[in-house]
Structure formats: structure tokens, C-alpha cells
Design a protein that fits this description.
mainly alpha
Length: 197
């Protein structure tokens, strides 16, 4: 199959068969069905090996679609991996979850079977894995130092500001003083004397 067919199958992977009837060919519909089943299988159990997927495809996806040969199964596997990627390498979060869930499942089955020694061992493994058996790392406040600021009169140290030349500085000061004196005299109101009687 060419890349256009693969792109169409990816687009309509989980679409209803009625919706895809006029768009996908019979061959593309077969690939869509196999890919949909395998993607679902991988999402439910990401640790599924490639060889298991190939066997699953060669067996007709547990009888839900026609069997394919080994070479077609490997072509389908490459297409399926292009859809889901390698879930096993996606992150350590999945492995952490698997380990914790496995330990919890062992604990649950041991506890329900009244095998309290195995249940305690499962909890011990879970506690060590999650580091619940150790105290939380306390913060060493002596290593945390406040930033050291050094006072300076150099305006160029502040980003975006430029120094004013010395010649202009006094003229700017006079201009600002006169501006504010003028504003004050315009906005100033005479004060009213208030007496407490």
C-alpha cells in the first residue's frame, strides 16, 4: 500500500464502517480493521511484544478478521507502530505505574487468600519502591543563600536605561522643578482652618 492509503486509513481509523464505505477501498478497510484492533490491544497493554502482534495478526486478530501472512503482518506492524509509536519507550511513568500496580495486585491476591506473609512482603516491596520507608529529605536551609546585591550609581547596570550627560542633567532638573512648581501653584487650594469647638 502507498502512503496515501496509509494516510486515509489513519484519518478514518476509528470511524464507523458506514462512514468509510465510499472513501476506503476493500483492501484499505481490511487494513483499517486490523490496525484498529492492534492499536486498541497496544493501548490496553503497552508491554505487548512485536512478535505477539505479528502472531495476533497472522491468527486473524482472534478470529475477528481474515488471517494474513507473515510478511503482511510485519508490514501491518510497521504501519501500526507509525500510529502509536513505541509506547514502551514513551516514559518511565508507565513502568512506575506497572511496578506499583503489580505490587498492589500481589498484595490484594495474597490478602484475599489469607497469605499475610506474602501480603506483607508485597507491601514491603511497594514501600521500598515508593521510598515510603524513608524519611522525607529535609531542606538544608544553610545552603540556601540570599542573592548578594552590590549598590551602584552606574545606571547602565539597569537594562533599558541610559545615563544622562552631565551637561544636560542640571538643565533637566531646572525644567522639572519649574514644571512641578507651576503645577502645584495651579492646583493648590487655600487651606481652611478647622477648629474643635
Amino acid at each position: 500500500m502507498n502512503s496515501d492509503s496509509h494516510a486515509k486509513v489513519k484519518k478514518y481509523l476509528f470511524a464507523d464502517n458506514v462512514e468509510c464505505k465510499g472513501i476506503l477501498s476493500t483492501r484499505e478497510m481490511g487494513l483499517k480493521q486490523r490496525a484498529m484492533l492492534c492499536v486498541t490491544k497496544l493501548m490496553e497493554r503497552p508491554t505487548t511484544l512485536d512478535s505477539e502482534i505479528v502472531e495476533y495478526l497472522m491468527g486473524g486478530c482472534d478470529g475477528t478478521c481474515p488471517c494474513v501472512g507473515r510478511s503482511q503482518a510485519y508490514r501491518d506492524l510497521a504501519f501500526i507502530r507509525s500510529i502509536v509509536g513505541n509506547i514502551q519507550l514513551a516514559s518511565k511513568a508507565w513502568l512506575r505505574y506497572t511496578i506499583q500496580q503489580g505490587a498492589l495486585d500481589v498484595y490484594k491476591s495474597a490478602y484475599e487468600g489469607s497469605d499475610y506473609r506474602s501480603a506483607a512482603a508485597a507491601l514491603n516491596v511497594l514501600g521500598k519502591y515508593t521510598r515510603c520507608d524513608k524519611e522525607d529529605d529535609s531542606m538544608d536551609w544553610s545552603e540556601m543563600l540570599p542573592p548578594s546585591f552590590e549598590p551602584s550609581d552606574d545606571i547602565t547596570l539597569v537594562e533599558g536605561l541610559e545615563p544622562i550627560p552631565v551637561q544636560e542633567l542640571e538643565s533637566r532638573r531646572k525644567k522639572l522643578r519649574s514644571l512641578f512648581k507651576e503645577k502645584l501653584s495651579k492646583e493648590a487650594e487655600p487651606a481652611e482652618e478647622v477648629s474643635d469647638v
